[in-house]
Amino acid sequence: MSGRLAVIGLGPGDARWLTAEAQAELADADALYGYGPYLDRVPARSGQARHASDNREEGARAVAALRHAAEGGKIALVSGGDPGVFAMAAAVCGEIEAGPPEWRALDIAIIPGVTAMLAVAARAGAPLGHDFCALSLSDNLKPWSLIERRLDAAAKAGFVIALYNPVSLARRWQLGAAFDRLGRHLPATTPVIFGRAVGRPDEHIEVAALASAKMVTADMATLVIVGSPQTRVLARDGRTALVYTPRGMAGIDA
Amino acid sequence: MSGRLAVIGLGPGDARWLTAEAQAELADADALYGYGPYLDRVPARSGQARHASDNREEGARAVAALRHAAEGGKIALVSGGDPGVFAMAAAVCGEIEAGPPEWRALDIAIIPGVTAMLAVAARAGAPLGHDFCALSLSDNLKPWSLIERRLDAAAKAGFVIALYNPVSLARRWQLGAAFDRLGRHLPATTPVIFGRAVGRPDEHIEVAALASAKMVTADMATLVIVGSPQTRVLARDGRTALVYTPRGMAGIDA
Q: Chain B contacts of A251, Cβ < 8 Å?
């Protein structure tokens, strides 16, 4: 069995956050699989087949890429951001476990990338400078009560919280409910960062206080970061404010 | 004031995880600042000054870079991994807040990178495929009791946990104590991933069960990921196991 499947993180936005490794893997692949808009970000190369699929078809896309790899050849499955964070890498592992034994013999490579919260954080300053967590607000799989429990735990313990999948066409009330829930534990002034379409021409970064965060529009392309009580907003004349969470004094691990 | 300071994430390991943006910023800088081993990873360019400093001098390094930027010119401050995750970006923001007003007028750019937990996760499979948190085990600043409270909260709420700064020359017992603490909440079989020197020639990835994790050697170059009760280890004949945390069924946000 000589097949190889590389699950490749493109980073968010355009090619600025593509790594050298991801670029080399993309150039080397016989065929590409992925959600259409992600595939569109990869320059065309003659002789390289492209299989675009819909956003909802995560499992089917993983199966198709694994089947193709099992026939031999070098297959690339592209993912936005980092493939390991709420994205394709776990889906591929799950399909390997559920699939035919020969899929376990495939050469599987996960190629990391810049995940959305890192790019949004960079645009805002350094809100993830201290302990933080990443939580998907999608209750398509997990019950909303579990999401509430995780929001409570994270806020009470002082983690900064990055919210992935805050909103979708079918999930419109969850983000507001999450802000309400966090408001039980966090000061009304806690900074909340909305990073929309980061790294794309229509990028928009907005910072609001938790108490008024429900007034800010978020959509499927938005990543939300809710600060901790330690997170600071540093105003700057003529420049956007810097939002950061102090790491503290320089120590031996600086 | 025309000075610019770019705080640049090199990613962990060698140049494979350097982004196109980071590469361009490095090439464009008049002077580079950073911890010596990180600076050594940047190809030399004639006319570009280099100011290496010790690991412990985080605050002083930020101040030196800000001072230089305030004199005009394009300064790059390099950081391993992502500068926003337990690294230089928050230190720079803190020094700007504490420093002279003119520093607030500087053009500050944070250039994101692949942070260590993403690279280690990619090597192991997809352990960060569902809700997770990142926690520094350094008690140089925060009290150990707070770290325990965060470990408790994260484990009880079902987050996968990435541990940064697990060990240093001066902090030898903390990682074992953290495993003991997590063992109160998590099954003894919970997979623990040790990623040492990821992306370097001496890279070493090891997976152990939580109950025996204290037997594994970790050092300052190690990043540890502790699974959740949902994290799975998928054995493969002739290949390393894949460790992953299922994201679940394909949904509208896949």
A: 56, 58, 138, 140-141
Of A234, A128, A244, give the one whose Cα is nearest residue B105.
Answer: A234
- Give the list of residues 6+ apart from residue B14 with CB closer than 8 angstroms, or none: B41, B199, B200
| Predicted local confidence at residue B94, as pLDDT | 96
CA distance B88 to chain A (A): 8
Sequence letter at residue B45: R
Please count the other Cβ atoms lying within 10 Å of the Cβ belonging to residue A183.
16
Phi and psi angles of residue A188, each rounded to the nearest 5 degrees, phi first: -60, -25
Helix (H, G, I), strand (E, B) or coil at A102: helix
Query: Distance from first CA to last CA of chain A, Å, rounded?
Result: 46
Whether residues A114 and B113 touch (CB distance < 8 A) is answered with yes
Buried b (16+ CB within 10 A) or exposed e, B21-56: bbbebbeebbbbbbbeebbebbeeeeebebbebebe
CA–CA dist B217, A102 (Å, integer): 34
Query: Phi-psi bin for B125: left (phi > 0), alpha (psi -120 to 50), beta?
Result: left
Instruction: Kindly give the residue spans of alpha helices, DSSP state H, lying in B101-220.
Output: 116-124, 144-156, 174-183
- What are B214-253's pLDDT values in tens digits? 999 999 999 999 999 999 999 998 899 999 999 753 333 3
DSSP summary character for residue B200: S
Per-residue pLDDT, averaged over A35-44, amounts to: 92
Phi and psi at B193, nearest 5°, equal -105, 130
CA distance B105 to B99: 12
Contact A60 B253 (CB under 8 A): no
Q: Which residues pair with B215 in a beta bridge?
A: none
Kindly determine whether residue B89 and residue A125, on different chains, have CB atoms separated by under 8 Å. Answer: yes
Contact B84 A159 (CB under 8 A): no
Token pair listed for A146:
């579990």
**pLDDT tops 90 at residue A247:** no
Contacts of B235 in chain A (CB under 8 A): 104
End-to-end CA distance of chain B: 46
**Quick one: which of B59, B77, B93 has its CA closest to A243?**
B93
Question: Which residues in chain B (35-94) have CB-CB distances under 8 A to chain A?
Answer: 55-60, 82-87, 89-94
- Centre a 10 Å sphere on the Cβ of residue B100 and count the other Cβ atoms it contains: 10
Mean pLDDT of A103-110: 97
Task: Kindly report which listed range (A26-40, A49-63, B73-87) carries the lowest average pLDDT score.
Answer: A49-63
- pLDDT score, position B1: 53
What residue ranges of chain B have pLDDT lower than 70?
Answer: 1, 248-254
Report the Cα B153 to chain-centroid distance in Å: 21
